Amino acid sequence: xxxxxxxxxxxxxxxxxxxxxxxxxxxxxxxxxxxxxxxxxxxxxxxxxxxxxxxxxxxxxxxxxxxxxxxxxxxxxxxxxxxxxxxxxxxxxxxxxxxxxxxxxxxxxxxxxxxxxxxxxxxxxxxxxxxxxxxxxxxxxxxxxxxxxxxxxxxxxxxxxxxxxxxxxxxxxxxxxxxxxxxxxxxxxxxxxxxxxxxxxxxxxxxxxxxxxxxxxxxxxxxxxxxxxxxxxxxxxxxxxxxxxxxxxxxxxxxxxxxxxxxxxxxxxxxxxxxxxxxxxxxxxxxxxxxxxxxxxxxxxxxxxxxxxxxxxxxxxxxxxxxxxxxxxxxxxxxxxxxxxxxxxxxxxxxxxxxxxxxxxxxxxxxxxxxxxxxxxxxxxxxxxxxxxxxxxxxxxxxxxxxxxxxxxxxxxxxxxxxxxxxxxxxxxxxxxxxxxxxxxxxxxxxxxxxxxxxxxxxxxxxxxxxxxxxxxxxxxxxxxxxxxxxxxxxxxxxxxxxxxxxxxxxxxxxxxxxxxxxxxxxxxxxxxxxxxxxxxxxxxxxxxxxxxxxxxxxxxxxxxxxxxxxxxxxxxxxxxxxxxxxxxxxxxx
Length: 590
Fold this sequence. Notes:
Blueprint: H1 2-5, H2 9-35, H3 49-67, H4 106-109, E1 116-117, E2 123-124, E3 134-136, H5 144-160, H6 162-173, H7 184-203, H8 215-218, H9 273-280, H10 285-288, H11 307-318, H12 333-352, H13 362-367, E4 368-370, E5 388-391, E6 398-401, E7 422-424, E8 427-429, H14 455-483, H15 487-491, H16 502-507, H17 510-513, H18 515-521, H19 546-551, H20 554-557, H21 559-565, H22 567-570, H23 577-588
Parallel strand pairs: 3-4
Antiparallel strand pairs: 1-2, 5-6, 7-8
Organism: Elaeophora elaphi
Keywords: Copper, Disulfide bond, Metal-binding
GO molecular function: metal ion binding; oxidoreductase activity
């Protein structure tokens, strides 16, 4: 108002609205910032504060990335040659290249395995094998053959570089994408681990992604003593946390570290049956696809019983690479853990939703299913695994992971708790009865006395088992070499165009003139990639999935891409390149 006294009435009248507008804008900004304040993690239950802070930070980063995202570049297609008033519509998806990872049924996957579809719609592979839906079992319920096949497939995937490529997707999407800290968590990871399973099955079609039911280890007073963390399964760590043996002992991480790191049990906790039952008791979709990092404007309070919180505590319990989401996928344990989280999610869907509400059902209808969790009873005290025993003393009968030799077992002193041994004096020690021959060592029921009368005998038995496993590994590798497509070949992104006009445009000099469009949609014709079909002439399919895509109606729905890459399957061989370009451009504008 002091300024107004020094100015004319009209000038003052003009200044006041500007000052008021400025004040209102500041008030709105302040109110908005208050509304968008993240949750107060001091409300988190014990052990969840760090997880809450992490999820809150991920949410902030995702919102920041969204706010500062670069605007989408506008590109326009060149005109059709000799039809300067006509240009095709810009495809909805840039550089579309179908891959096995996109598949949601076995018919889609079949060509990538080099198989053929029979009249009953089954996929027949070489040697008469039929591609089946994967059956995900608890890792300790696998047969020796199944387990060794899984380990070999993971190692081959690592050697090919494809494991690292998939792990890097998780690293890049960990913090600013919505893959964590909210409703997308379960859905994003369902798709992600499906892709890992496909990659493994392209190496060995018999493989499925096992799950790790960490409640089986949680029952132990010291869960890190579980046989799960032995050379036979996930491997052991030294005092610095470096994984020194087991199937993944020499896995170099994305960050260049020579080994995986784990710090088992230093913090966090494994899943409990109570945690799982709490998830199952959620009645609404908001309770399962939960808002784990809501702002103060969100009408839903923080859900500290959400599956995302429970899952994160297991990551922290394993520690090392598994602890930060940016490095967690370095460790194959990540995929076993998330397979179990997806199992819990699927059980909730079956309990609380009908088929329409469960969309999409394709994952578990066609791609994979879950074997039941290990269980036993008073009348059937057998967990059907040499790595598990039935605990009859501590509450209702339930399966528990066996304990490694040399570790405390007092909690289960009267039960068959020790792997390859017995509980004596409060510790797991080698059995002391009759020795075991090398001929039958692979067939031993590990719940029976092994008959070892010295530490020398137990070491001999371990060496015999190692030789058996080595022989099994060589046999499986020989079979894999002859039975399936090489993963690296199947995963190579094809060098393709997205429009049948691309070759005509390239000949007319559009590659250097309309760089934005041609680099995005005419990669093959402008030599932004190297094509494998340059020597082929005539009408042919340029992609392995053309027949499947035709059956799915893509010749009409995705006409531009199909006209360029699937001419034979769509029946357009009699149409000249120029005419196909014109027709497709006209239809794309309808």
